[in-house]
Amino acid sequence: MGVKILTDSSSDYEQNEIREKDILFVPIMVSFEEEHYYDGVDIDKDSFYDKLLNTDIFPKTAQPAPREFLKYFHEAKEAGDDIIAILLSSGLSGTVQSANIAKQIADYDNIFIIDSVHAVTGVRLLVDTAVKLRDEGLSGKEIYEKLSYLVTKLRSVVMVDTLEYLHKGGRLTKAQATLGEAVNMKPIISIDSEGKLFMKDKSLGKARAYKKMVKEYQKIDRDINYPAYFPYSNEKENCEELIKKLKSIDENINENDIYNIGPTIGAHLGSGTFGFTVVEK
């Protein structure tokens, strides 16, 4: 008997990280019309952004089918293992729903499904915590209980550099996007308690956006027992500049905790996004 940890591709792990951390992985599909790819399996981040920036086709994503989870759930049941699935927010995707259907089919009590109510670095922080707790010898149920509480303390804020993909994804009207681009508007986005994106603030220009991002960070009473993670989409220098500014007010930041957003979420945000994920006390 042991503890298995499973996540989806919204966590943005590289394949070598998946092997090193000994986690199970279910990819989410991203499609450019008739070209279909499994995030993190047959398309990497560099290839994805190259396609994104050099085509007029808006990519679409599709949740995994229940069978993608069921094979891992059956393996855990046969081995008598606990299995913890830490997944993309149910407010953004039907991935959690697919996992719950698979759990019902597997009919096994030791399957624990965590709705991260987050994406990218929020999911990663939960998975990294689960790996640490597993390695310390905690049971699946104990890890599930700790993560369920941790979910309520996660805080993520990002700045979106372009409105194009929010418009194409139906989150902004064409008129809103056109007007916003004309005045160089930079939305500052967070995630609510239901795991849905909302506009927390907006700024005219990137320089002002950095200042507002710093203010948002200062509003949070950060728990330094957990790392601060920094997501970016394609353009790393945006996030490096934010980290530089934040390190002047938080000496506990590690500039190496910076992670490129993959196709699952990058398809909806485009290039140039940057932000932070922390745990609040």
UniProtKB/TrEMBL annotation:
Matching PROSITE patterns: DEGV
InterPro entries: DegV (IPR003797), DegV_C (IPR043168), DegV_domain_contain (IPR050270)
Highest taxon in the source lineage: Bacteria
Keywords: Lipid-binding
Molecular function, one GO term: lipid binding
Transcription recorded as keyword: no
Cell membrane as UniProt keyword: no
Stored Pfam families: DegV
Protein name: EDD domain protein, DegV family
